[in-house]
């Protein structure tokens, strides 16, 4: 019997009017080569605003606060993050420095491919759709922790990752780009540094709701303390779609309110909110466990979490 799939985007819109706004644009490039940095992340510090650069490293953002003291936090895989004051500028050219010491790290150990291990997180709970946790305000990222399989005493590599997608009418038969990240565990047990140094931009297929990603080419050895698999939405025009809902604010009902969201919607699962729960979302204040979203009451005490099918080899 097919499991019942529940869909939620975790995006309760707040209907607010702004007397003033300000639009800025910019381009993000490599400090040394001047090459455009596709799909870099752009956040407005200390606010819930942000976007993604497009494939040419170009971005535009409508600010809801016109204060000249605002700063942008710009980041990209393999580069140092940078804070950039906006001041009174309307267009910015932002350059980022490469993390050379990390990108040049080479794992000389190669997989033997004599042993296999498969982990299917979708078997752990009821399936659910996971969209923009930010409500479409800034690029959202979710991450799930995986421990090193116990039957690998020595070297263990990530061989394949399967990602599943939730079908929505607004994006039927359309592709959607997103970023896949593999991250180490930091000292607090949260997602830390990227251990997949390639900026891996993937695309949801038009007619299929799953995607198998061959990870063998990256020779990612699983750390003893485990790792996180993370999915990042890209807030680019080709991924955008509209959701229309009715909202109540105090005694006022707002009908047919359109909100811009960004595909794809990933398939995840509902899990028990216990001490073993170890999935995170990236807020403007940093990584937080998904059980901090205060949505347990909607799902009989269970918590939404990303899920994957992962194959390991020796």
TrEMBL record:
Range of residues in the leader sequence: 1-19
Please report the name of this protein according to its UniProt entry: CarboxypepD_reg-like domain-containing protein
- The record lists the membrane-crossing segments as none
| Top-level taxon | Bacteria
Q: Which keywords does this Swiss-Prot/TrEMBL entry list?
A: Signal
